[in-house]
Amino acid sequence: MSANEPGRGVPAATGAEPTTLMPDSSPSTAELERLQQALVEADQRARNHYEQYLRAAAELENVRKRAQRDIEAANRYGLEKFVAELLPVKDSLELAVQSAGRADAGSLREGQEATLQLLSRALEKLGVTAIDPQGEPFDPARHEAMMAQESATAEPNSVLKVVQPGYELNGRLLRPARVIVARAPA
Q1: Is 128-186 in CATH node 3.90.1150.10?
Q2: Sign of the CA dihedral with 11 first, then 17, 23, and 25 last
Q3: Phi first, then psi: what are they for 134, rounded to 5°?
Q4: What would you measure as the largest C-alpha separation in the chain, in angstroms?
Q5: Mean pLDDT for each 10-residue chunk of the chain (186 residues)?
Q6: Among 160, 133, 131, 165, which Cα is nearest to 148's?
Q7: Are 148 and 181 in contact (CB under 8 A)?
Q8: Cβ atoms within 10 A of the Cβ of 121, count?
Q9: What is the rounded CA–CA span in Å between residue 23 and residue 64?
C-alpha cells in the first residue's frame, strides 16, 4: 500500500478530502435545556449568596458601630456609679471641715469614724475588698515586703504585721498589702 491510497488519511489522486468521523459529542436539545436550567439555578444561587454576604457585612458593620458606641458610653459614664458612691463621703468631710473650729475632739473623732464607714461601704458596693494578710504565709503576688523581722512566735515567711492593707477590685489586685515578714531568729 502506498501513502496515496484512499483510506490512509492522505488525499487521493482524485483531489477529494477524506472524511474523518468524530464521535457524536454534540449535546442534544434536552441536554442543552438541562444545562441552561442548571446555569440559571446556579446564577440565582450566586445572587442569593451575594445578597446574604451583603446583609452579613452590613450587620457586622452595625455590630462594630454599636460596640464602639457602647465603649464610648462606658468610658464617658463608667465612673458615674463610683462618683455617686463617693459623694456622701465628700459631704461628710465638708461637714467635718465646717464644724472643726467649734467641735470637741470626741465629736471630731466620731465624725471621722462615720466618714470612714461611709467610704468603706462605698468601696464595698463597688467591689473593692481589703487584703489583710495578718498571720498568713507571705505571697509576693499579693503582698509587698517592707522588711523582714526576727520572731520567735511567728512562722518564718509569714506576715508578722500589716503596715498598709492592700485592695482588690472584683478579685483583681489594685494594691498589694505592705507587710513585715517574719524570719527565724538567728
Answers
A1: no
A2: positive
A3: -50, 120
A4: 140
A5: 50 59 68 94 97 96 95 83 86 84 83 89 90 93 94 91 93 94 90
A6: 160
A7: yes
A8: 13
A9: 60
